[in-house]
Amino acid sequence: MNENILGIIAGVLTSISMIPQLIKVIKEKNVDDISLVMLLVLISGLSLWVWYGFKKDELPIILSNAFAVLVNISLLVSYMIYKK
Amino acid sequence: MNENILGIIAGVLTSISMIPQLIKVIKEKNVDDISLVMLLVLISGLSLWVWYGFKKDELPIILSNAFAVLVNISLLVSYMIYKK
């Protein structure tokens, strides 16, 4: 498989993976079983991947991680709202 | 910053991010708020990133995603055990 297509498919999957989690949280308004440390470490790491993508000039890495940062920041905001 | 060091730091952060989630699940034996679809899509995507890493011959991508696959498979096994 062409490596750019592979990177784009991989990127789409890892980017959208947190969307079902976000939908579940918004629907159930419950975040008790979700780890805040996980979210914070993940957002930091994904942001560094965006930076890495710019340095290597690799669009699949930049786009997928930038999108994943947005989804996880939404999850973090939901966490703050729904955490008892 | 050197791009390989940047990639390694980014990789370490995204790889270890699910460890606090795994510890939380094992301690509390509760996975009700975790999305199974998220886990399945994430494991598929991370596996493709490993493949991408091999094609591009980029060690930070291979190592961090392979480790993340392992952590998320552990989380999936925990999910199967603790899901009511």
Automatic annotation (TrEMBL), chains A, B:
Gene Ontology molecular function, alphabetical: sugar transmembrane transporter activity
Location within or outside the cell: Membrane
Cited InterPro entries: PQ-loop_rpt (IPR006603), SemiSWEET (IPR047662)
Topology with respect to the bilayer: Multi-pass membrane protein
Entry's transmembrane regions: 6-23, 35-54, 60-82
GO CC, one annotated term: membrane
This protein's UniProt keywords: Membrane, Transmembrane, Transmembrane helix
Domain of life: Bacteria
Protein's UniProt keywords contain Metal-binding: no
Protein name according to UniProt: MtN3 and saliva related transmembrane protein
Species name: Chryseobacterium oleae
Species classification: Bacteria, Pseudomonadati, Bacteroidota, Flavobacteriia, Flavobacteriales
